[in-house]
Amino acid sequence: MALLDLNSGVKLGFNHKDERLSLLIEFAGCDAPELFKRKLAEMLQKVPLLESLSITIRGTSRDVFDVRPLGQFLPPSLKKLKLQQMDACLFVLWLDAVRKIPLFNLRSLSLVLDLISDDLLITVVHSLPHLVPEAGYSSILYSCRNLKKFEVLTSPLLSDSVIDNMTGVARSVVELRLSSCSLLTSEALEHLSSFRKLEVLDTSGCESIGDQAPFYISKVTTLTRLNLAKARITNVGLALLGAGDLPILQLCVKKCEKVTDKGIKYLFLADRKICKTLSVLDVGYIPQITDATIFTIATAAKALTDLSLRFCNGVTDAAVQMLMDRPNHNSSQLQLLDLCSCRGLSAEAIMLPLPQHAFHRLRWLGIGLTDIVAKRGIFTAICEAQPRLVVCGVCCDFGCCDGWQCNKVR
């Protein structure tokens, strides 16, 4: 390692080994941004094989920290970059520019920042995909033999092979969340039965997952929470899942658009464990769900407390009346009911006078984007009779007004 003093507080150091170069730059004691940029450009143009670059700026004004011109001179060979005392906003702008450089192959990034923002992290992921390659996930898995929770969100590079590499930690993992990973397919779950302690599986947004996945999932007898939102599963997949006889407490098949009433019926056939254990069910955004599904759920799901039907236009007044009129039935267990944007409901779906035990246990009712909202007088009466009930008149997420949002119909 050598250090060069190029006047006015600029120090440049470099290390040469096996024709691979690393460069350390220190800029201190002088508010001279133009000098900094010029000296930086001169040095970078002399090291076309540069692999590692570290820039440290000390004791100067923040105007000096604009390294956007750096992108004009970075060699394609650069793999490691470290920047100290960086302005986050300027770095986001800079990164937007450098990602367009051909062959840019950065694999290691270190920053010293006052603030880490969502914009920064999103830009890093989108601009520098090699910072989240499969090899990185595999390294984590190999070094965490007692891993209990593994979560990856919106990774465009995560593929089935990463899950194959989890065999070493399969016996310890309790939660596995792989949300919006576009390359993930059903085959990734082929060896899921080796996860002896798995309780939570979330593949929401993985749109390449199909009917084979529920077959593999059905072998995991410890599973209690399952999220298959946006999967390409059909009624066949739900039949396979039901055949596994799992003690599922929470199930989400939201936006599984190929599912119909028959699929929900297959899930609850033959008084399986799910009939006794399921408490939370989300079948929202499925166009082919109708009143028949509500009748099946109300009859079979004996422990159901939370039900989301949002954007299910096939649900009509008849289903709502059935849920209200049977005080000693399974449906009387409901505590959260989401009917948001169920266009098949009329303004008269909930009528006064109410049955004596209607909404007896209900704590949250979502009616946003339905004609029912116009009947505010009804909900005033309901809320007076049931003061613990929250009626949400906008299309909030399932169970709002919990301290984070307050959109009530009173």
Automatic annotation (TrEMBL):
GO terms for biological process: SCF-dependent proteasomal ubiquitin-dependent protein catabolic process. It comes from the Eukaryota. GO terms for cellular component: SCF ubiquitin ligase complex. Residues 132-401 form the F-box/LRR-repeat protein 15-like leucin rich repeat domain. SMART domains: LRR_CC. This is F-box/LRR-repeat protein 15-like leucin rich repeat domain-containing protein. The lineage of its organism: Eukaryota, Viridiplantae, Streptophyta, Embryophyta, Tracheophyta.
